[in-house]
C-alpha cells in the first residue's frame, strides 16, 4: 500500500467523521426546536392548536393564547440558560481537566448567589442590570478562590482536591447566604424562590438584560475550543506547541464565568446541567472541543427545556421548579460519574 493511498484513506475517514458529527449536530438542533414547541404547547393549562398558532403570532385574546404568550419567553430563557450551563460545564471540565467540574459542584453558582444576596441585603441593590454584574463578579471570585484552594499542597490542582474545595465552598457560601438573607424578611421570600432555580418568571425584558452577557460568553467559549484541545495534552506539551497556557486557561475560564454569572442572575443557581451534558456529549463526539462545545450547548438547551416541561406535568396543577427536576436527575448521575471515573483526570 502506497503512502498516497494511506493518506487518502485517512482523509476519507476524517471526512466521514466530520459528516457524521455535522449531521448529528443538525439532528440535535431539530430536537431542540421540537422541545421548544412542546414547551410552548404543554403546561398546567391545556391549549388548543388554534390558540397555540395564534399565540405564536402574538395574539392574546383568549386565556389559551395568553398562556402561550407567557410560555414563549420562558422557553427562550430555558434554552439560553441551558446552553450556557452546558457550555460552561464543558469549559470547566476542559480547563481543570476534572471530570467532576460543574458550575454547581465547584461552587461558582453559589458564589454568584451569595454576591447577589449581599448586594440585595447590605447595599439595597435595586437596578436589574446590577444583578448580572454582581452575579458575574461573585462567580469569578469564587472560581479563582476554589482553584487557589485546590492548588495548595502536593500535586497541585488535582480533580479530587478541586471537587472537595468546590463542595466545601458551596456549602459554606450556602450557609453565608442564609445568614445574610434570614434577618431581611422583606426580601427573604422572593430570594428563596429565586435560589431554587427556575424559568417560570421569565420575560422578554429579562432576556434582553442577560442576552449581551450570554452572547459574549458563547463567543469567547467557542473561540477557545482549539486552546482547550491543546490544554488537554498537558501544560508542558501545550507550551511546547507554542500555546500560552495561562492565556488559554484564562480566556476559556472568562467565557465560562460570564455564562455562569448571567445564567444565575437570570434564573437562580441551577445545578447538575453542566455536569451531565458534557459527559453525554463525549459519548457522542469524543473529546475534540471543536465539536464538544457546540454539542454541549445544544444538549444543555434541550435538557433544561425538557426539565421545565416535566416540572409542569409532574405536579399539575402546580409546578416543580426546573432546578428541582435537574437535581433529581443529576444527583444519581453524579454518583455514577464518581464510581465510574474514580475522580481521574480527563
Annotate the secondary structure layout.
Blueprint: H1 3-41, H2 49-56, H3 63-96, H4 108-123, H5 128-151, H6 159-181, H7 185-196, H8 204-223, H9 225-231, H10 235-240, H11 245-267, H12 273-285, H13 289-314, H14 322-341
Helix pairs in contact: 1-3, 1-13, 2-3, 3-8, 3-11, 3-12, 3-13, 4-5, 4-6, 4-11, 5-6, 5-11, 8-11, 9-11, 9-13, 12-13, 13-14
Report on the structure:
There is one protein chain. This protein is mostly helical and 346 residues long. The chain has a single domain, classed as ABC transporter involved in vitamin B12 uptake, BtuC (Orthogonal Bundle). The protein is built from 14 helices and no strands. Helix 4 (108-123) packs parallel to helix 6 (159-181). The chain is globular. The two termini are 36 Å apart.
Amino acid at each position: 500500500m502506497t503512502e498516497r493511498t494511506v493518506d487518502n484513506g485517512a482523509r476519507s475517514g476524517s471526512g466521514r467523521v466530520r459528516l457524521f458529527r455535522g449531521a448529528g449536530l443538525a439532528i440535535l438542533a431539530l430536537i431542540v426546536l421540537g422541545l421548544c414547541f412542546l414547551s410552548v404547547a404543554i403546561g398546567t393549562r391545556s391549549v388548543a392548536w388554534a390558540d397555540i398558532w395564534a399565540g405564536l403570532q402574538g395574539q392574546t385574546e383568549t386565556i389559551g393564547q395568553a398562556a402561550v404568550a407567557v410560555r414563549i419567553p420562558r422557553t427562550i430563557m430555558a434554552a439560553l440558560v441551558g446552553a450556557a450551563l452546558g457550555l460552561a460545564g464543558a469549559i470547566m471540565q476542559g480547563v481543570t481537566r476534572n471530570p467532576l467540574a460543574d458550575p454547581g459542584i465547584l461552587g461558582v453558582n453559589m458564589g454568584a448567589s451569595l454576591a447577589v444576596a449581599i448586594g440585595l441585603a447590605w447595599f439595597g441593590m435595586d437596578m436589574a442590570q446590577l444583578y448580572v454584574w454582581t452575579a458575574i463578579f461573585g462567580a469569578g471570585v469564587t472560581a479563582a478562590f476554589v482553584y487557589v484552594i485546590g492548588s495548595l499542597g502536593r500535586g497541585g490542582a488535582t480533580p479530587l482536591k478541586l471537587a472537595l474545595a468546590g463542595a466545601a465552598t458551596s456549602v459554606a457560601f450556602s450557609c453565608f447566604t442564609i445568614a445574610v438573607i434570614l434577618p431581611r424578611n422583606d426580601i427573604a421570600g422572593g430570594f428563596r424562590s429565586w435560589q431554587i432555580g427556575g424559568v417560570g418568571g421569565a420575560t422578554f425584558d429579562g432576556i434582553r438584560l442577560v442576552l449581551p452577557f450570554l452572547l459574549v460568553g458563547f463567543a469567547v467559549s467557542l473561540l477557545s475550543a482549539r486552546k482547550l484541545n491543546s490544554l488537554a495534552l498537558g501544560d508542558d506539551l501545550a507550551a511546547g506547541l507554542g500555546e500560552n497556557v495561562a492565556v488559554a486557561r484564562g480566556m476559556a475560564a472568562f467565557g465560562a464565568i460570564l455564562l455562569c454569572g448571567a445564567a444565575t442572575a437570570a434564573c437562580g443557581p441551577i445545578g447538575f446541567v453542566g455536569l451531565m451534558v458534557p459527559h453525554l456529549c463525549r459519548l457522542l463526539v469524543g473529546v475534540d472541543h471543536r465539536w464538544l462545545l457546540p454539542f454541549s450547548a445544544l444538549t444543555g438547551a434541550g435538557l433544561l427545556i425538557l426539565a421545565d416541561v416535566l416540572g409542569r406535568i409532574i405536579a399539575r396543577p402546580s409546578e416543580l421548579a426546573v432546578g428541582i427536576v435537574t437535581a433529581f436527575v443529576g444527583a444519581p448521575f453524579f454518583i455514577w460519574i464518581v464510581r465510574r471515573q474514580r475522580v481521574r483526570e480527563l
